[in-house]
Amino acid sequence: MKKINRKKSTKTENKKQKRRIIKVVCLIVAVMITSAGMYLGFGIFKQVEGFSKEKLTSDESSVLCTTDGEEWFSVARGGVQKNVSYNDIPQVMIDAVVAAEDSRFFEHNGFDVPRIVKALVGNIAAGGITAGGSTITQQLIKKSYYPDEEQTIERKIGEIILSIEATSQISKEEVLELYLNKIYFGYGPQTVGIYAASRYYFDKSVQNLTLPEAALLAGTLNSPNRYDPFRNLDLAQQRRDTILDLMLQHGYISEEECEATKAIPVENTLKSNPISTSGQYQAYADKVIREVQETIGYDPYETPMRIYTYIDTDVQKQLDDIASGETYDFQDSRIQVGAVIQESTTGRIVGVLSGRDYTPLGTTYAYASQTGASYGQKNQPGSSLKPLISYAAAFEFLDYSTAHYVHDVPYEYANGFVPSNWNGRKYNGDISISSALSNSWNAAALQTFSEVITGKDCNGNDVGDGIGIDGATQYLESLGFDMKGESVDIGYAIGAWRQGVTPESEAGAYAVIANGGTYIEPHTVQKIELLTTGEVIEIDQKYQEEKTQALSEESAYMIRDIMTDYVKSGTGMYSMLNLGYQIGAKSGTSNHADDTSVNEKIRGQNKDAWLSAFSPDYTWSVWTGYNAKDQKKGYYTKSNRDSNNIATMIAKFLHEDGMKNSYPSQPSGLVEASCVSGIYPYVTPGEGVPDNRVVSGLFKKNNTPSGSANGSSLNNLSSFTAELADDKLNVTFTEYDPKSMTEDATPTKTYTAGGNSYTLPYLGNINQLYGKVVYKVDIADASGNVVHSETLNSATGTINYTLSPGTYTVTGYYAFESGNGTSNKISQTITVEDTTSASYTRTALTESSVTYQVTVPAGTSITASLNGTNQTLQQSGTITFSQLSAGTTYSVTFTHTQADGQTVTLGTDSFMTTSQTQQPDPTQPTTPTPTQ
């Protein structure tokens, strides 16, 4: 038997075992490689199976433009998009891009093997994928199919396959066109695509790009953020010059062109960007976008469209400069502002100020959503809507006149709350509507709105058919106010709204006054052109066709007449707007609650400040205040300074070129007439009605003054005496009967509200038209001129006037304190004697003349006679006789005519004139002795 070698056998078995293990491992590896390959291949297949040229095409952005078609804003979440055809791209741009990104672009089939090998070697050396070696076609595929994916082998292979497929289906020119319309040229979405980049950097069309501009754009493609010249000017300059070297290297430009272009600084080619996705005109653009989204049913971000707007870029820039603080210094850094400007007769909004530090599609203080979106802040209007809510409504529904007197008396709510006027609890009684409005009296506005709703005044008198709460709500809706969430009560007249209003809604409502009562919904859009279908949607035409008559022409004219009048004659904030443009305006201020529901710092303090105004051309409204967060921190509006100043700035730059339009003329349904103030129904003033109780105004033809109020007669005066005593003039009348008529003061009425009583002027009783009876004294001199008049409240008195010597006529009579009517008149003559003595003194004597100083008592005269020549003085002075003969004796006689007409000879003065050589005798008496 052969011997078995066990050691050898064991080795052989081990070898077999190793071979089996190796086979199994190889099999497993093969299976793994096959599986991985199958998985990788399936993944790549899934990527490339849906290739479509349409996927490579960039969707165009929606564009905002003026009514003339000039583009000013582009709407795009991913950046400005407007596709440019290959034929509109200059050759210099093509050359620069090819030289910079893919020098063999027109030769390879979508991917470049040498570039990929070079990139592969680099990746191996780096131990990972750091470079792709992508061609232009591959970059287009990546941007279209893999915009957000990481670099992987699977994605890279799919990119290559798709690039080859793209090259087989579309031309090189189409690839370049698609690429340049999709790629980033700098930092941010505003540089996406060659169209946006040309505008962003150079403010020019693509077809007008020059060599230095093309090289700059091509240079950014390698690293858009890094080489954006607005962010890294020096790096952008270096990169541009590198591209120029590449263009020279590949034969696209000459060495002379290369060096000459390098000498041009990049900053010399850059300009500001007129088409923006943020910043300039952002506030207006967002208003347009939101308006289209909410009212038209299209989203400019999703549906490419061309939107024609009514922006006035000059106006909008002015508003943007105010908001940024460039042209206006706000009272503090936290206060916010909102404003809207629209054309008065069209509803077309030309400018929007959404707030300070406004961010795209952020919170706006200029307008609010009509669909419940929370981007807009409404605010309490304060007194800013009094003209519309109280007085225009009274003209409209009660047919009041502009001469109507309203009642500024306390109004008590059901809970006992009595609102005060802005100056405390001072009420003014019966006052004109103009006074009520220009002084913004709260109580008058409350009482008038109550009359509109109830048809009764505070004295219980019927004043017309009240419209009720429902009618008042409908009226406010007709003016464009959003009444959802509101619950109208009397407090709305002074700004106590549940939700509040916006500058847009106030501007739209006040435009009704300037526009003859017609309301047109405020809007920014003229029309929309859908870029995908070419459909045109006429927006403005719809609004013009749907305009409504919110106020009659007559009511609109009447409230406009009052508002423009008090601006012309006003002081303070209204005088600021008196610029000669027929502006009407109303300010307003609201207050925080005066209870523990608010921060103690702001309790009872001012909250909102408004000024809304209109002219024949424009209507604008400005609000200033704080956002809700700042209010909780204790910020409150310390003054109306900002709202008033900004509204005035707006008025000035809107009308710097003068007025383009004029208001509608006075409607035929109005007449001018006069009535007695405070009396309703209106009464025509008759003879004797006091001037201060006659008022003129505009009346609707169906409610003009009627009847007549005539001056009331007074009792006859039976006796009147006037006498001097100790140089004082005392007078005595027969006491008027009844005596009570001399004791009644200005007519008043007492009102009770909130447990307090208020006695206030009341003009509603025609029997008290002329006030109380007084005693009148007139004093006339000898010539009949009245030198003094005095009114006495009692039948006897001493006249507060000193009579100089002379003769006077003193007349007494009864009269009304406020009126032209008088009783009969009784006159008495009073003579005041002068105690001064009559005298004369010779003061000069020459060879040919003599002069006397003469003292004449008041009310008398002195006559000097010489040889038939007379000279008379009625007051003290000098008398000179001349042309006398030298050395001759003369006699002058002086006669005194007294106050009662009697004459007395004062004396005769005899003298001899001097000879030519003789001097006067100094011993001669200078005061001759009078002779009787």
UniProtKB/TrEMBL annotation:
Pfam families, alphabetically?
Answer: Transgly (PF00912), Transpeptidase (PF00905)
**Where does the chain cross the membrane?**
21-45
| Annotated Pro residues bias | 922-932
Region Disordered, annotated ranges = 912-932
Instruction: Give residue ranges for domain Glycosyl transferase family.
Output: 81-247
Q: Which reaction does it catalyse?
A: [GlcNAc-(1->4)-Mur2Ac(oyl-L-Ala-gamma-D-Glu-L-Lys-D-Ala-D-Ala)](n)-di-trans,octa-cis-undecaprenyl diphosphate + beta-D-GlcNAc-(1->4)-Mur2Ac(oyl-L-Ala-gamma-D-Glu-L-Lys-D-Ala-D-Ala)-di-trans,octa-cis-undecaprenyl diphosphate = [GlcNAc-(1->4)-Mur2Ac(oyl-L-Ala-gamma-D-Glu-L-Lys-D-Ala-D-Ala)](n+1)-di-trans,octa-cis-undecaprenyl diphosphate + di-trans,octa-cis-undecaprenyl diphosphate + H(+); Preferential cleavage: (Ac)2-L-Lys-D-Ala-|-D-Ala. Also transpeptidation of peptidyl-alanyl moieties that are N-acyl substituents of D-alanine
Q: What is this protein called?
A: Transglycosylase domain-containing protein
